[in-house]
Design brief:
The protein has 1 helix and 5 strands; from the N terminus they run E-E-E-H-E-E. By secondary structure, the protein is an alpha+beta fold. It is globular.
């Protein structure tokens, strides 16, 4: 099953919420770096109650804002 995590970086507070079907919003207080994929997988694992090894990163869809992206995962 594919899920889309609309991720926004450099926010004031960390926040995770579901907004329908397989779509989630994730606000992070830090900028994108080399550990971002691992961090998002850990958050998804905790919030969805799945082992991290069952979550596979597929791709990133860029948004108009440089601080927002759609991260797509398979679970």
């Amino acid at each position: 099953m594919e899920i889309i995590v609309k991720t926004r970086f450099n926010c004031v507070h960390d926040k995770f919420e579901k907004f329908g079907g397989n779509f989630y919003l994730l606000y992070l207080t830090f900028g994108k770096d080399s550990d971002t994929e691992k961090t998002i997988k850990e958050i998804l694992s905790r919030k969805l109650g799945l082992p991290a090894h069952r979550i596979t990163f597929k791709k990133i869809n860029k948004m108009m804002s440089k601080d927002a992206e759609d991260w797509i995962f398979d679970i």
